[in-house]
Amino acid sequence: MRLMKFGDLEIARVGLGSNRLTHTPEHVAFIRAAVEAGVQMIDTAHLYTGTQSEKTIGEAVGGAPKGVVVATKGGFNAGEGKPDVLRAQIEESLRNLRTEAIMLYFLHRVHPDTPLEASLGVIKEQMDRKKIRFAGVSEVDVHQIERARKVVPIHAVQNHYNLAERKWDAVVDYCEREGIVFVPFFPLRAGHSAGVDELARKHRATPSQVMLAWLLQRSPVMLPIPGTLSLEHLKENLAAEKLELTKAEYESLA
Q1: What does the DSSP assignment read for 58-90?
Q2: Regarding predicted confidence, which is higher, 65 or 225?
Q3: What is the pLDDT of residue 189?
Q4: Pairing, β 9-12 against β 3-6
Q5: Which helix (DSSP H) or strand (DSSP E) does residue 245 occupy?
Q6: Mind listing the pLDDT tens digit for each residue in 29-38?
Q7: β-bridge pairing 102-107 and 154-160
Q8: To which H or E segment does residue 47 belong?
Q9: What CA–CA distance (Å, rounded) separates 95 from 63?
Q10: Pairing status of strand 9-12 against strand 16-17
Q11: Does residue 44 contact residue 18 with C-beta atoms inside 8 Å?
Q12: Active site residue 48
């Protein structure tokens, strides 16, 4: 299994997205089973399913589960990056996740109505209070990351990136140079291509596993978070960590 450094942890390089997770007994059981299966990064947000995603994760793993990074986000909509609004969202996320400290907290979006420095100032304030351990930013370019790092250390960047969506190549390269974890969301929304399907048949894998393997080989700081509510699909995603593409195979997709 491929591992990467996150703070003082060594964690698996395929995580779990939870934007469709609702607060049901079945989904609480699913999160517990996901952790048992080896998931060590669970990504959620204040926005997801009207806070149900956070509440489900909080009930399932609560507190600060050993060896698991629970990441959440706030400030998605216009006006929500304002200090008072973001501060309230952080406090609600702490309650939802049933934790004294959020391991990784992302500013979900940067909006023209609030300078990112003002929003990140709230995150730094919460870090100083030991309510947040690590900070991240989402859907940002290199210049915005550099501005953010002047306010608070940035440990992770979460942008839309996959085999077909390559807009943020420069950000991936920057994160690799700087040792920042890059978390691509929608990592499997690339559609199937003949090349992917051919490699899947060759390796006796699924197209999704090939796309995840490509991402993992794209950069050592890559940590994709495919979303699923199926334990079978989750285990399939985790197994992609064992799939090694040859240089020629990798380049045929790039």
Answers
A1: HHHH-S--TT-EEEEEE--STTTTSHHHHHHHH
A2: 225
A3: 94
A4: antiparallel
A5: none
A6: 999 999 999 9
A7: unpaired
A8: none
A9: 10
A10: unpaired
A11: yes
A12: yes
